[in-house]
Amino acid sequence: MKNLALIFIFLCYCPTYGQDIEYIKKLDTVYVKFKKSTNQTKEVVADYRFYTIRLGEVSERTSLYFIKPSFDEKATDQIKKYLPRTENKSFLKKHKNDIVGIDFFKKYGIIKSTYGAFSVNCVIYLIDCDEQKKGEITLYRVSMSSSYSMGE
Fold first, then answer.
1. pTM over 0.90
2. What pLDDT is recorded for position 96?
3. Which residues pair with 141 in a beta bridge?
């Protein structure tokens, strides 16, 4: 009985995230959490951003790339979609089930976690945890690619 109570308490207070692939498949917008580390790198040049998430030792076959292109100042409506969005930190709690991170990609692998989970029309926003300031986060709309080659 004591063990049952402990399991119940654990399940109630255990943080849950949208790491279920079936749930992610149904979303039209997915948020990718990024925190710079050994397996997560970024390059920033002016407005251009290139994020890499490595899932294994051999980076040529197990890397995901998220790209936020840079644009000149003559922004059209299409280009304005890629301008950074600023949200309150409460946004993270509100959308916690829609946020995936490196653990999600490692759990399902490149093929299932990207090509299987993210639909063609899915909008991807990257949350750069290294750029959080005073209760605000910045979201970058990105395009995604990977080192996986479908022909191999």
1. no
2. 93
3. 125
Give residue 141's pLDDT: 92
Q: What was the pLDDT predicted at 56?
A: 76
Q: Select from 44, 33, 24, 29 the least CA-distant residue to 116.
A: 24
Distance (Å, whole) CA 105 – CA 117: 10
Specify whether the CB–CB gap between 65 and 142 falls below 8 A: no
- Classify 74 as helix, strand or coil: coil
Indicate the SS3 state at residue 75: coil
> b/e for 114-137, b at 16 or more Cβ within 10 A?
beebbeeeeebbbbbeeeeeeeeb
Q: Mean pLDDT of residues grouped by 10 in the chain (152 residues)? A: 47 48 90 92 86 75 83 68 87 94 88 78 90 89 77 48
Quick one: DSSP state of residue 46? T
Give yes or no for a contact between 28 and 122, defined as CB atoms under 8 angstroms apart. yes
Residues 6+ apart with CB under 8 A from 114: 64, 105, 144, 146, 148
Report d(CA 130, CA 133) in Å as an integer.
9
